Amino acid sequence: MRKFRQRKIVIISAAGCVVAGVAVACALMLGSGTASASERLIQPMSAVVPSGQLLKIQLSDSKGNLGSMYLVDPAAKTCVHLSASPEGGKVRPFGALYVYTAAGVSSLSGVTLETRETTVRNYSWIEAKLDWLGNQVVREEGTASLDGREVIVVRGQVISKETGQPIEVKGYLDPVSGIVVREESRAGDEVTIVTRQLVSPAEEELSALAKRPLSELASKMRRAWFQAAAEAKFPVLVLPEQLAEKLGVRLASFVPSGEPDYVSIDYWAGPEPQDLAIVIRIWDLDTREESFWKERVPLEQAVERSWRARPEGSPEIAFQQDNAGVKVEVIGGKVELSAEEVARMLVPIKESGLLQ
Prior knowledge:
Layout: E1 5-8, E2 10-12, E3 22-25, E4 38-41, H1 45-48, E5 54-60, E6 66-73, E7 78-84, E8 94-100, E9 105-109, E10 115-118, H2 123-130, E11 137-146, E12 149-159, E13 166-173, E14 180-187, E15 190-199, H3 214-230, E16 237-238, H4 241-247, E17 250-256, E18 262-268, E19 276-284, E20 305-306, E21 315-321, E22 324-330, H5 339-345, E23 347-348
Parallel strand pairs: 2-11
Antiparallel strand pairs: 1-3, 4-11, 5-6, 5-15, 6-7, 7-8, 8-9, 9-10, 11-12, 12-13, 13-14, 14-15, 16-23, 17-18, 18-19, 19-22, 20-21, 21-22
């Protein structure tokens, strides 16, 4: 009579929850996942992602909060990286976007819509960062059921590129595709969960960013921000576009909050940040009342004051218009106007010409 042994089969959902316990199995019938650990070489991403497909990688914490998402195309040597926005909202859906190629990396700030390019890092750098267990020899520790499919549980150790410290990584290898579809690691109190899946470029709108400049997306988003400000439930005030030109300043930064219920607006008198000339901050007093601690009076009654944190001769004025708290600062030496004079020039964004 053949002997049977008891083997623990762990069933794991996508969220990482254990939903089943112990089962009885025949050792002769279940060839995968033996009790004694064996070693296996994990293939790199470039060897397991078919040409014409992308590897979608998501990093989240133990609570399922998404930190980053990557669309990797090893054949084309491109990677689109979306960093999640801590604020979220319809206006600012991401914190930053990066596009890695063999030549370098382009970036778009989800806060300021500023675009940059650098050759300090490129696709090879991001591929090595994401392919932790690739080309690593790991220990097999049995099998598990993950999202309805049997995977091989593996464990390995990698060196953190940020700290240089070893990190223990538990992985779940799909034996059919050769992809480690899930990884779990801990660094101190921080738990990171990585999931991977093959996707078609047609399924992922962001994949198109690898083929066109991020400046196009920035322009599209900026127009959307202007429109969102025009539809906000509080007045968003700016300089009329033609008047700004006459004053020799340009709209350099227009940053609404995620709702939006706050807008930060900067005008520059030149091409560089040190050319900051006019600063406007506007709060929705219905939702951000505690943020506007200035005296709530109409512009006609507001008193202009000097702002000590700015260069000498930098006046500011704060006032209430409808349900908005407004603060205007003029940087000394950049514009020959008082803060009150600038404030009187402001108009609702719908009337500014920026939406045309």
